Structure formats: C-alpha cells, structure tokens
Amino acid sequence: MIRRKLASEGNLESRLVRFARLSRLDGKRPFSSESAGSRTSVLYPLLGGSVVLATAGATKYVHDNVGGTEGLTRSLSFYSFAIPKYVEYRYHMYNKSPDHVWDKLDTDTSKTALDKAYELEGFYIKGGQMVAANMGGAFPQIWQDTMSVLQDQVPPQDFTVIKDIVSSELDFDEVFSSFEETPIGSAAIGQVHRATLKNGTPVVVKVRYPNVERILRGDVVTIKMFAQIAQPVHVPALEEIEEQFMTEFDYVQEGQQLENVRKNLRKAGLEGPGKACRVPKPYLHLCTERVLVMEELHGVKLADGLKDEMGIQARREGKTTEQYMSEMKQKERLAKERGEELKGPSSSEYDMYISVLNKQRLVSNTLRKLHNISVGWFPGNKMKVIEDKSALPVNHAKMIDDLFYIHGHEILVDGYFNGDCHPGNIMLLREVDGSPSIGLIDYGQVKKISKETRHLFARLLIALDDDNKEEIVRLMQKAGMKTEKMDPEVLYLYAKVSYDTINDKILQGKHIQLFMEDLESRDPIVQLPTELLMASRCSILLRGLAMALHQNRSAASAWRPIAERVLQTEA
Question: What is the reported pTM?
C-alpha cells in the first residue's frame, strides 16, 4: 500500500543500478517524447536485466539492512509490486494517457496495493493512511477512497495476544473490571479496546503489537532505498518522518506527550468541554512501554461522521447517498474541466444555513412533543423522536479554521505539536446538546521546536503570506535549506508548496509529483530545513483535509495572526 502511495516515489533495491540508468536513459527523461518510439521494446527487457544483474549484491545489502531474512522477504514482496507499477505509471504519465486509462489503472492498482498492505501491514499501513489523507495533494480520489479503510480498519490481532501483552505489563484482573475483546480501532502499530477500571472509570486501552518495532524499521529502510533511486527528492523528508515515527513505540512517552499537549491547549482555552477541541486524558500511572490507558472520547472518526452527515443531507434533498455523492463528483469534474476551484460555503454562510435548519428542527420538535403528549399515548400510535443538534450539519469551514488555529497554536506558541494530524486521528464529537466539537487523538509523533525556530517559522509564514520572495529565500536559507545551485526560485517554490498552499499557478499546471521532480532536476536538494519538516507535514495534512471538504486554505494566511502575536509578545 505504501508502494502505491509511493508509486510515484518508488522503492527500489538500493543497488538496482540498471533501474537508475533506465530512469536516465541516454541522459533523457524516461519515456520522454525523445525515446517514445522505443519505450515498449526496451522497457521490460531493461528492467528485467537490471534486476538480474543487481540481485547478488542487492540481496545481501537488503538482508543486512532491513531485518534479516524476514525483512528481506518483505522487501522483495514490496519490490515485486512497486517496481513494475512504478514503471507503468511513469509510462502513462509521459505518454499522456487519457483519463479513462488512468481511472482503470488507479482502480486496479489501488485495490491490489490495498491487498498488499493487508498482507505486509507494518509501515505500509502508514503509507496507505498518507494516501487516504491525500498528503501533499498528490493522490487521485480513487486512491484516497480505496485506502480510507486503513485509517482505523486494519485487521486486528487475536484478543489472546492482546490480553497476554496487557497482562505482562499490568495486573489485568486488578486493574480492569471489564475489557472488551473486540477492538474499536486498529492501525499499523497497535489496536485500541474499550475497558472499565476497577473504580468504574470507562477508558480505552491502546496496545502495541509484538515485534512491530523491528518490522517497521525494516520497512522504512526498504522505502528509503526505493526512493533513493526513483525519487531522491523525498529521501530527506522520509528520514525525518522515520525519526519521528520511531518515537511511537514507547507508550509511556506518548502518554506524557498527550498530557503535555492537553495541558497546553487547556491553558490556552482551546481544550475542554464546550471548547474548540478535546484531547483524551492519559492515566499515566497505568501507562507502560506497550500499553497506554486513557480517557475515551465519545464520538466517531471524522470521515465516518462526514459520511453520516452526507447521508442526512442526501435524504433532506430526497436523494440516496450514492446519488448525492455522484452529483458532487460530477460538479468536481466540471469545475476541473473549466479550470475552476469548487469552493464550499464560508463559515458565515454555513451558520445562516444551519440557523434555518435549526429553526425548522425546533418547530418540528414542538409538533412532535405535542403528538407525544396527546395522540402518541393512544394504542397503535408511536412516540416521535425529538431531534437534538446532531441532526444539523457541521460547519465545515469553521471546523477547518479551528483545526488550523489549534495546530498553529501548538507549533508557534507551544513549540510542541502533533506531526501526524491525518483525518484518522481527528474525531467528530458531540456535546450534551448534540452540537459538534473536535476530538484530537494519537500523539505518538510529537515534535518539539525551540523558541528560535518558532520565531523563524513565524517570520517565514508572514513572508509567504506577503509573497515576499526575497525574504522567503533568506529565511529558507537560515532554516537550513540547501540546494546544489541555491536557485532562489527553487527555494521560493519549495517554501510555498511546503508551508503555504498548492494551486495551479504555483504548480504551473503540473501534477505535484512532476512539479517536485522538475524542481529536483533544476536544482537538486542537498539538505531540507530539518526542524521545520514536521511543520510542513502538519501543514500539508491539514490542507489535504481542507481540500477534500472544498475549504482550501493558505496555511500562511491562517497562521499569520498567531505568528504576528508570537513575534510581538515574545520580542
């Protein structure tokens, strides 16, 4: 799964030298118009020869670096899928294949990739989650839809395995009065169960899978080796993600990070009942390296909540959910053909619409109550349900604004933030009256940055919002960005894509993958601004969610007020 996610990134044996040559055949781009005539005649023989010639050295290299025989087997399984599909995608990319060909390729490949992810699990589950979150705006809707099940529907481990792990870490019978055998969620590293403590407190228990650290480390090495050959531009980012990802294996540390973020947001008036968000309270005295016990947030995954809401809206319009979704996709296609951006309602427009629906709800509830206290008592009549505010749509614009503000505060004010804020880690909660709120979970990948870095990032955001190219380039250099030629335009464009926004004007009509490749070809990256890579990931993930809801945002514009306040108050 991660492979298709990285289908454009690739993942080769580190030493597949012939494949490296293939990608730069005669100094030209692979499958460029200059080599189009021979692409089908030389493509597979060259690739096959590459694998044969590289096998001896590559096999030992991979064996030694990805976790022995098991890791080697996993790597070869990954490569057997990734390499042919990578080549096939490159072929269609440079051959400018029509949309119907791409749709079929995406449908078939994403399904096969999902099967491969289920087979291998490990980091490939994480890769699929990045696809589902449309990280970087690089993934077609077909891929996002296929991989969405990996947000929290990974095949779980048998409960006997889970109970053995918990029992080895805690006195199971002394700590819990009940423990549900069926998990409420499962992912790459572990799964989550509902339980009740002896004192009657309801909790959720996150349990780490056995041997997962060794497996995941090998998977990351496998992916990096592929990227080093096929997409070297992504290697520095993968290395930072790897470093942060490895912090997820200690649940004592994750529990403390969860508590730190919760306290920071509560202090700022952003967390708690009736506030912008909720973060679960960890029970630190019950947390161990492999078990995390925390408060349960009552709600659903954001994606599930939005699907339910879509069904309600469809019924409101007298349509099925499928009809409603089909119409939305058709609108998206037409907008794309016209070169337009399909924009959702603003926050104020949502409020007006919700206000009208709420008045209708109140009138309807009044009639229902009258029915219930009168004819509802007669035999054969049913009592009518009184609707709370959960029947009303969510203000998508406000939700996106809140998510940007919360994470902007974490980065710029606290210097302590979640770099893995994909939709699977965001919940849609309901207050007592049914009004919506946001739940933030999974703080395994927390990044801490210094005051100096916070201030530098604040200045960079302001420069990006002002589109001050000279200042953007200067700050990117100060942040540690290095390229071979130090081309100012490359530094500027990289900053816009990483920390601000992605649009056709910036991408010059190209797909984000080709755009990044062109930047790399123009001026190869030597070093990325390491301390800001996770901030970039946070920005990209939030922008991906906003884009999916037709609420496109400039991160620089959204975070500018916080940046200005930080620079003023901490000067």
Answer: 0.81
Task: Please state, as a whole number, how many other Cβ atoms lie within 10 Å of the Cβ of residue 567.
Answer: 15
Handedness of CA 398, 404, 407, 410 (dihedral sign): negative
Non-local CB neighbours of 482 within 8 Å, separated by 6+ positions = 525, 526, 527
Nearest CA to 543 among 512, 510, 508, 509?
A: 512
What SS3 class is residue 63? helix
**Angle subtended at Cα 506 by Cα 503 and Cα 511, rounded to the nearest 5 degrees:** 70
C-alpha span between 529 and 254 (Å, rounded)? 25
**Residues 464/475, Cβ–Cβ less than 8 Å:** no
- The domain 159-211+249-299 is placed in CATH, from the list 3.10.20.30, 3.30.200.20, 3.30.565.60, 3.90.1150.10, at 3.30.200.20
Full DSSP string of 427-458 = EEEE-TTS-EEEEE---SSEEE--HHHHHHHH
Give CA separation, 260 vs 190, 253, 263, 421, in Å: 22, 10, 5, 16
Report whether 299 contacts 280 (CB < 8 A): no
Q: Please tell me whether residue 232 adopts helix, strand or coil conformation.
A: helix
Q: Is 297 left (phi over 0), alpha (psi -120 to 50) or beta?
A: beta
Instruction: Provide the CA 28 distance to its chain's centre, in angstroms.
Output: 34
Per domain, the residue ranges of the chain are 2-148, 159-211+249-299, 300-342
Task: Identify the H or E element spanning 107.
Answer: helix 99-120
Residue 240 and residue 568: Cα distance in Å, rounded?
31
Residue 53's identity, in one-letter code, is L
| Distance from C-alpha of 540 to C-alpha of 306, rounded to nearest angstrom | 20
Contact 259, 282 (CB under 8 A): yes
Distances (CA, A) of 376 to 94, 168, 368, 373, 486: 68, 56, 9, 6, 77
pLDDT tens by residue, the chain, 571 residues: 333 333 333 333 333 333 333 333 333 333 333 333 333 333 444 444 444 444 445 555 555 566 577 778 888 899 889 889 888 988 888 788 888 888 899 999 999 999 999 898 888 888 888 888 776 566 788 888 899 888 767 889 999 999 999 999 999 999 999 999 999 988 888 999 999 999 999 999 999 998 888 888 888 888 888 888 777 767 777 777 777 777 788 999 999 999 999 999 999 999 999 899 999 999 999 999 999 999 999 999 898 888 888 888 888 889 888 888 888 888 888 887 787 778 899 999 999 999 999 999 999 999 999 988 888 888 888 889 999 888 899 999 999 999 999 999 999 999 999 988 988 899 999 888 888 999 999 998 899 999 999 999 999 999 999 999 999 999 999 999 999 999 999 999 999 999 999 888 888 878 787 888 889 889 988 888 989 999 999 999 999 899 889 999 999 999 999 999 999 999 7
Beta-bridge mates of residue 176: 197
- 294's enclosing H/E stretch is strand 291-295
